[in-house]
Every structure is written in C-alpha cells, then in structure tokens.
Amino acid sequence: MKPSLLDFTKEELAQALSPSFRAKQVFKWIYQGYVDDIEAMSNLPKAMREHLGQTYDLTPLHVVREEISQDGSAKVLFQLRDGHTIESVLLPMKEEVVDEEGRRVSHPKFTICISSQVGCKIGCTFCFTAKGGFVRNLSAGEIVGQVLAIKKRHNIAPERRVNIVYMGMGEPLDNLPEVVKAVKIFADIDGLSISPKRQTISTSGLSHQIKKLGEMNLGILLAISLHAVDDALRQELMPINKAYNIASIIEAVKAFPIDERKRVMFEYLVIRGRNDDLGSAKKLVTLLHGIKAKVNLIYFNPHEGSAYQRPELKAMEAFRDYLNAHGIVCTIRQSKGLDISAACGQLKERSTHDRT
Ligand code: SF4
C-alpha cells in the first residue's frame, strides 16, 4: 500500500520533496484546495505530479454511511483502506458574535468529534466501542482525513475553522505519537489552520500520558472523563481506574499547562442514586480545588441490560447549582443527535448488524 500524503507534516513532506517549497504548495492543494487528485495540483511540474502519484496515495476516507439528526448533527461511518471502520460526528452550533457595528449576530460554529483508534483497550462498561475490543491505532493521516472528509462533504469552506475533539472511538492518549502528529498537521497555517487551542483531547485519565502530553506544551485543551468522585464507583464504571486512580489523574491535571483563558473540562456521567447527590457534588468541589475546571454533567442513558438508571432533572440541576455556587463552572450537556445513534461506537455497531 502506498503511503498516504495525509500522514505527513509539512516539514516531513519538505524533506521528501525537492525543492522543499513544493511541500507548502502540496499542503495548500490538499487542505485549502480540497483536491483528491494529485494531477489537479496544477502549479506543480508535470514530472513531480507523476512522481507523487506513483509514490503516494491521496484517496479520501470512504463513507460507508451517514446519519443526519434533526438538530443538524451528523454521524459518519468511514471505512479505512484495510477495511476497518471508524466513526466521526459533526456538531453544528450557533455562536453569538459582535459585528463591526456592535450588533450581536448569530454565527454558525462547527465541532468535529474524531476517532483515534479502531476499537479501544480501556473497557469502560458504559461504552459500545469497548465491546469490540482493540484492533489498531489510527495513523495521523487517518485522524486528519476524518476532518477533511467531513468539511468537504458538508461544504464547510476551507477557511472556516472548526473545533476538534478527540472523543470518538479510542483513547487518544493510548496513541499519543500519531495524535500529536495530527495536532500539528491540523495546526499548520498552510493547511486547515486549526490552532491547538481549538483542539481538545478527551481522555479516560491515563495520568502518565497526561504528564507526557503536558511536557510537550502544545497549547492543547484537555477533557477528563471523571464520572465519579470515589475510586470504588469509578472502578466499576471504568476498570482502568485500577491502574490510574482519581488522585493520580488530579495530580497530572494540576501539572498540565493550561492557557489562562481556558479551563480543563471534567465530564461527569450522572447515575441515579450512585453519584447524583449533593455529597458527591461537595466531594467534587474538594477534588477540583486549585484547578481551573469546568464540569459537564451527562445524563446516564440506560440501555438494555444496564444496571444503572437515568438521573432526575431535579437532581441534575441541584448538582449543577451547587458546583456553580462554589466557583466551578458547570453545565448540563444538551445531548445532540439523540435521534441518531448517540453514543460513541453505536453507528458502527448498527452498521455491522445491518450487514450480518
Ligand atoms: S468511553 Fe472512550 S475510553 Fe472508554 S472504552 Fe469507550 S472509547 Fe474507550
């Protein structure tokens, strides 16, 4: 199989091409010109186009299926070159901005949620992806290719910046080298120009990898799937907690470099009668003391055979209000795409059933 051009940073491409300034042109064609065909890179000499075509691949990710929700969010199932499938989600939102005349106008904003692995090793009990086990890491090009394909497919102009969340299939910090490379490719100003400040790595809490990522000082944002304030419940939900307990995660987050204007996001899955009481809210305030944190409360949605129940709105609001009153920004997640396969891994699951 020929290597994909999407797997290269511009610097790597500059080393592979002579003269090296051609790398900038190739980057612009791919990420700003949206071309899928090397032949279309008309400012490159013919011989170079031929060489590139013989040596590299530029086939876009193949879309197997797409589900569009009534709220406009789209879930896309992609097939990789080796036949494995992964999924990504496009979340359109509205952002209020002030125009030149001082008027507040509503402005479309996009977030794309991408996968970093085929399957996952982490084994969270509430997750569909976990059931299929781990298959392999994605390459940087396969990570970048998801955003490129979605932008093209949904006619999002090349110059329109999007936010990226590494929150689809897989644990991004378990594939750190390729994820870091993808962060750099996304950020390239001759490419998609998505600054690390618009990229969020969402992790199950691999504390040693959080430390490693922090030491790289990329300026990226961090989201932690915390879900519980005591190790017993967290271990029940996320067996990985045996290896990386809550204390180790908090310690790693405290050492992580955060932009002054940003916060670390803590995801908290609320389960009726287990972690929805004010005692848990109080423990959470204590745990997050000293961290510029934002908490996102997520309703637990029971599925067939699940041992837990959905919390009541009253409990969610009381939890949120307690946190807000104690200096922690807290929101209740407005689930998007509830009418399509909403949980991570569900689209893939359904498509597999359809084929069998
Ligand atoms: S929730 Fe995320 S980290 Fe946990 S098993 Fe699923 S994909 Fe992996």
From TrEMBL:
What does the entry list as the binding residues for [4Fe-4S] cluster?
120, 124, 127
Briefly, what is this protein's role?
Answer: Specifically methylates position 2 of adenine 2503 in 23S rRNA and position 2 of adenine 37 in tRNAs.
Q: Which SUPFAM superfamilies match?
A: Radical SAM enzymes
| Top-level EC class as recorded in UniProt | transferase
Catalysed reaction(s) here are: adenosine(2503) in 23S rRNA + 2 reduced [2Fe-2S]-[ferredoxin] + 2 S-adenosyl-L-methionine = 2-methyladenosine(2503) in 23S rRNA + 5'-deoxyadenosine + L-methionine + 2 oxidized [2Fe-2S]-[ferredoxin] + S-adenosyl-L-homocysteine; adenosine(37) in tRNA + 2 reduced [2Fe-2S]-[ferredoxin] + 2 S-adenosyl-L-methionine = 2-methyladenosine(37) in tRNA + 5'-deoxyadenosine + L-methionine + 2 oxidized [2Fe-2S]-[ferredoxin] + S-adenosyl-L-homocysteine
Q: Which family does it belong to?
A: Belongs to the radical SAM superfamily. RlmN family.
Cofactor, how bound (note):
Binds 1 [4Fe-4S] cluster. The cluster is coordinated with 3 cysteines and an exchangeable S-adenosyl-L-methionine.
The positions flagged as active site in the entry are: 87 (proton acceptor), 344 (s-methylcysteine intermediate)
Name the lineage: Bacteria, Pseudomonadati, Campylobacterota, Epsilonproteobacteria, Campylobacterales
EC nos: 2.1.1.192
- Indicate whether Ribonucleoprotein appears among the record's keywords: no
Note, other: Reaction proceeds by a ping-pong mechanism involving intermediate methylation of a conserved cysteine residue.
Q: Give compartment(s).
A: Cytoplasm
Alphabetical keyword list: 4Fe-4S, Cytoplasm, Disulfide bond, Iron, Iron-sulfur, Metal-binding, Methyltransferase, rRNA processing, S-adenosyl-L-methionine, Transferase, tRNA processing
Q: Where does S-adenosyl-L-methionine bind?
A: 170-171, 202, 225-227, 301
Protein's name in the database: Probable dual-specificity RNA methyltransferase RlmN
Q: Which cofactors does this protein require?
A: [4Fe-4S] cluster
**Radical SAM core domain: residues covered:** 106-339
Its gene name is rlmN
| Ranges that cross the membrane | none
Entries under CDD domains matching the protein: Radical_SAM
